[in-house]
Amino acid sequence: MAQGHQPREYRMEELAREAGITVRTLRFYRERGLIQPPRREGRIAWYGDRHLAKLRTIAALLERGHTLNGIADLAAVFDSGRDVSEVLGLGEPTEETPVRLSPEELADYFEGEVTAENLAAALDLGYLATDGEELVHISRRLLEVSAALVREGVPLAAILEAGRRVRVHTEALAELFATTLRTHTAADTATDPAKLRPLAQSVVEAELSMALDRHLRTAQD
């Protein structure tokens, strides 16, 4: 029977060797605050698997064109982000599928667009949350659509701002439909409000589709 991964500890030289960097570089990263301080045992400093994961993330982000200053800013935002349990609240969304990402995987989705400002905005909106050394995107659909828009040339900052504005309207729509369903189905015990959820979504999708048609026709005139 296979055993699970056993956490390891490394001395500075061992950690540098595993990460493929020099001890001098490791000291520099530690002084810059890019990795957490080691565990001290007398005069010996012990590093763990989380330090190694962070060093590999730094290397991957450097390969993707990020500067050390940019990585330090990202790390600061990442460390201050809300925990995934706080964002998910009472449970995972009933229809949206969360996606786990490493920082370098997120950078691959949004090439050149993962800045400290954009990361902070996504964390503030609740699109992203932290879970240990990983990021969790709240919705695979939103992640894929956002990445597609970036590939079409739309700046991620503009997408996040649009998301913030859309949130205001969707919250109002959700409240409207929830109130309507509660008001008109409370006396009918045979009606399951959950079954009416896709109907409310269809109304919004149809209205949005028609509104887009009107705006596109106007733009072409």
Number of helical stretches of at least 4 residues: 10
Radius of gyration in whole Å, from Cα?
23 Å
| Strand adjacency order, main sheet | 1-3-2
From the spread of the alpha carbons, the general shape counts as elongated
**Number of distinct beta strands:** 6
What share of residues are in beta strands? 5-15%
Give the CA-CA distance, first to last residue.
70 Å
Model regions low in confidence, pLDDT < 50 over at least 5 residues:
none
Order of helices and strands: EHHEEHHHEHHEEHHH
**Class by SSE composition:** mainly alpha
Overall number of domains: 3
List keywords for this structure.
221 residues; Multidrug-efflux Transporter Regulator, Chain: A, Domain 2; 3 domains; elongated; 62% helix; mainly alpha; 10% strand; 6 strands; single chain; 10 helices; three-stranded antiparallel β-sheet
Brief rundown of the structure:
The chain has 221 residues and is mainly alpha-helical. It has three domains: 1-63, Multidrug-efflux Transporter Regulator, Chain: A, Domain 2, CATH 1.10.1660; 81-154, no CATH class; 163-220.
What this model shows, in words?
- By secondary structure, the protein is mostly helical.
- The protein has three domains: 63 residues, Multidrug-efflux Transporter Regulator, Chain: A, Domain 2; 74 residues, no CATH class; 58 residues.
- Helices cover 62% and strands 10% of the residues.
- The chain is elongated and about 70 Å long.
- 17% of the residues are buried.
- The mean pLDDT is 84.
